[in-house]
Amino acid sequence: MQAASIAAHADHHGPPPAHRSSRVEAPTLGMLLFIMSEIMIFGAFFTAYFFIRVVNHNPWPAAGTQVPESVAGINTAILLSSSLTIHWALMSAKNGNRFGLKAGMATTFLLGLTFLTIQINEYIHIGFAPHDAAQATIFYALTGLHGAHVFIGLCILLMVTIRAFRGHYSPDSHLGMEVPGIYWHFVDIMWVIVYTSVYVL
Questions:
Q1: Structural domain span for residue 185
Q2: In total, how many domains does the chain have?
Q3: pLDDT of res. 19
């Protein structure tokens, strides 16, 4: 018995395997930690936003400007719908539904792309620039920061969608789309907060 143990130890090369005390998969834990860091970044921008409105008592938006609440409301509905479609895709992958997986991912990508296109069109026609006022600066900063996250999410979704069409996911192997899904849900939730703060309040 001791000889077998010594032989097994001799066959092992390199450092010992890492001890895992958590039941959370490493990619999922990594994504959750990344999201926490992103929340702090958004928090810094929201601090500047509320400083302008609450501490300085400046009008929102700046005098002579307005933000398109109705367009942003439609865009919010589009982005929230994409959370439903990516959840449908994940459930389809877990149930072995290939059609639902592919249709859900393709629809999620198209909805996210539509959101970003409308956001860019809003910038073109909104009528003020970031340097016009402090309110304009924080408006572009907050919505632009979120738009950058949407763009990153779209790049990830495109890769997941391509892999879905190539048959890379199954009921036993779907972590590769579940982790990006967590990120996309974060992007959607963060937009609800941005929309409520910047467009509604």
A1: 26-53+73-200
A2: 1
A3: 56
6 within some domain:
no
Indicate whether 7 belongs to any domain.
no
pLDDT 10s digits, 50-95: 999 888 888 999 888 899 999 999 999 999 999 999 999 999 999 9
Q: Is the pLDDT of residue 25 over 90?
A: no
Q: How high is the pLDDT of residue 13?
A: 63
CATH number, domain of 169, equals: 1.20.120.80
Q: Is the pLDDT of residue 45 over 90?
A: yes
Q: Is residue 161 part of a domain?
A: yes
Rounded to whole angstroms, how far apart are CA atoms 146 and 113? Answer: 14
> In this structure, is residue 12 part of a structural domain?
no
